[in-house]
Specification:
Blueprint lengths: L6 H11 L8 E3 L8 E6 L6 E5 L8 E4 L2 E3 L11 E2 L4 E8 L8 E6 L3 E6 L9 E4 L7 E3 L18 E8 L5 E9 L11 E4 L13 E3 L11 E7 L6 E7 L11 E4 L7 E9 L9 E9 L3 E9 L11 E9 L5 E6 L8 E6 L2 H4 L2 E5 L12 E4 L11 E7 L11 E5 L3 E5 L10 E3 L7 E5 L6 E8 L3 E9 L4 E10 L2 E8 L4 E9 L2 E9 L2
Antiparallel strand pairs: 1-30, 2-29, 3-4, 4-5, 5-6, 7-8, 8-9, 9-10, 11-12, 12-13, 13-14, 15-16, 16-17, 17-18, 19-20, 20-21, 21-22, 23-24, 24-25, 25-26, 27-28, 28-29, 31-32, 32-35, 33-34, 33-36, 36-37
Length: about 525
């Protein structure tokens, strides 16, 4: 799986140049059938799974689950093609680390530390490359089902992320350093990039949640989103940091979110970078959040659009489900699950509908604004069968069955895991658009303009609004305004130092307004 092609950014700009593009929330022309189950596996821990990419060159991706490897197929199979022995956690596909080696894959064996294995064809599959990561016995891989092969420094080779551990005075284990080892040569136990986690090492800092491989700011380098949690003596804190790839890669996060910023809604464990949903050439950020009530919790899913600048507040909020108090299990991933070139979103929660479990699929497209889900599959409550509390550890699996779309895996508290097929593009009906209940009125003048452009908007209700200017290549030229605004008339001004064609974009909730303007110097 890889970031969506930048050609969709050109499509979005071309649509805007054709005139005003304003799309309200999307609904489906007809229901979409639940996805087809490709593979089912019973027993083990559903968290120990990940995609291995296409290793044998047959156009289908391989899948790892609880020590078992299944080669891609469009048929249901019962037996794995390869089995790793021992108790294994933290599976992670590295990708092409060295030019003379097949793809690499990391597993962490209890008592043996992290081990790196070769994949590739049958001659190399499962052969150790490094056993125990010499000299770094207290290092283990980070990441998992929310990460894809990552090239942080843009040298064309995939890199390895690790975390150096410590043991606190009270016997707890936590993470002290987050590290990156760049690909292209032999693995060096001295990391090429390292940061100390932003907490006192006297406290436990698990920080197991890391997502990487996508390009949030569109500069061609893989980026990384990390969650750190601190457990002090009284209460606990969580930080979410976004690090942007580069050569060199900055050790200062480009963005930081705090768990308490969204009070009374709280950010939680699951974080994920997402493939470009709206076709603007930037990948996105997804997080899970929840709010507690007297008898139950409710959840929602937050999405930030990528770009040169990223807002503190999310751009899109997807509704979740009521949950049992204290049981929080929200998941969110991205991929192209309907083979149309745009990123899609899947959300899941094993506590949805007060212990039933469910997942939803949202299909992306130009000017995607959340809208309603295209697919919803609920688990089993009353019967407590194999689908009881469906929604554990959602993971993207590239294209397992070779139909051109990404597939995904999901587990349940019953102990079962399933591999679901994505949709071929022709199997998904196109979205239709329904009017909004209110409209933002705008007037942008003069056009063409020589020095200063007036952006006049009228808001029917108080709301959050963002006004941005893009150049003809789709890159942001200015962030005119971002924040809460009262109802009524508001005028903003923007000046350009250069001649050219620009796109004014006004975003508010599900409203999307685009205007083409021309500056003549």
């Amino acid at each position: 799986m890889k970031s969506i092609s930048s050609k969709h950014k050109q499509i979005a700009v071309a649509m805007a140049l054709a005139g005003v593009v304003r799309l309200a929330p999307e609904a489906l022309a007809q229901p979409v059938d639940p996805p087809r189950i490709l593979l089912r596996s019973e027993g083990g821990d559903a968290t120990q799974q990940c995609s291995l990419g296409d290793q044998n060159g047959d156009g289908r991706a391989e899948w790892y689950i609880n020590g078992r490897v299944y080669f891609g197929s469009d048929q249901m199979v019962d037996e794995p093609n390869y089995v790793f022995d021992g108790i294994i956690v933290g599976p992670r596909l590295v990708g092409r680390f060295r030019p003379d080696l097949p793809d690499l894959f990391i597993l962490h064996r209890w008592g043996a530390g992290a081990c790196i294995y070769m994949l590739g064809d049958s001659a190399t599959f499962g052969r150790p490359y490094i056993v125990g990561l010499p000299g770094t016995s207290r290092t283990m891989p980070m990441g998992g089902e929310v990460s894809i092969p990552s090239d942080f420094n843009g040298d064309g080779f995939h890199d390895i992320t690790t975390s150096r551990l410590f043991e606190s005075e009270d016997g707890h284990t936590g993470i002290e350093h987050l590290q990156i080892h760049y690909g292209g040569g032999d693995f060096d136990t001295v990391p090429d990039w390292s940061i100390r986690v932003p907490y006192d090492s006297n406290f436990t800092t698990p920080g197991w949640y890391l997502s990487s491989g996508y390009d949030v700011n569109g500069d061609g380098y893989s980026d990384m989103l990390v969650r750190y949690t601190n457990y002090p003596e009284h209460g606990w804190e969580t930080i979410y940091d976004l690090y942007l790839g580069g050569d060199p890669m900055d050790t200062i996060p480009a963005m930081r979110w705090m768990k308490e910023q969204f009070d009374p809604w709280m950010l939680d464990d699951q974080i994920s970078l997402l493939a470009d949903i709206n076709g603007d050439g930037y990948d996105e950020i997804g997080m899970f959040s929840w709010r507690s009530y007297e008898r139950f919790d409710v959840c929602r899913y937050l999405i930030w659009f990528g770009g040169d600048e990223i807002s503190v507040e999310p751009n899109i909020i997807l509704d979740g489900y009521p949950m049992i108090v204290g049981d929080l299990a929200g998941e969110i991933i991205g991929g192209d699950f309907n083979c149309d070139g745009f990123g899609d979103v899947i959300t899941a929660n094993s506590e949805a509908n007060l212990d039933e479990g469910a997942f939803r699929i949202y299909f992306g497209g130009p000017n995607w604004n959340g809208g309603r889900h295209a697919v919803e599959v609920r688990g089993d409550f009353a019967g407590r069968g194999e689908f009881h509390r469906l929604g554990v550890r959602l993971g993207a699996v590239n294209d397992y069955d070779g139909d051109g779309s990404d597939d995904f895996s999901l587990g349940a508290w019953s102990g079962w895991q399933w591999l679901y097929s994505g949709y071929r593009n022709e199997a998904v009906p196109p979205p239709i658009y329904i009017p909004e209940t209110y409209e933002i009125k705008s007037s942008i003048y003069p056009n063409p303009f020589n020095s200063t452009l007036n952006i006049d908007i009228q808001l029917p209700v108080e709301q959050d609004i963002a006004i941005d200017v893009f150049d003809i290549t789709g890159r942001i030229a200015a962030a005119v305004h971002r924040g809460r605004m009262s109802a009524g008339n508001h005028i903003f001004q923007w000046s350009s130092a250069n001649s050219g064609i620009f796109i004014i974009r006004i975003l508010s909730g599900s409203n999307r307004i685009y205007r083409k303007v021309v500056c003549l110097k």
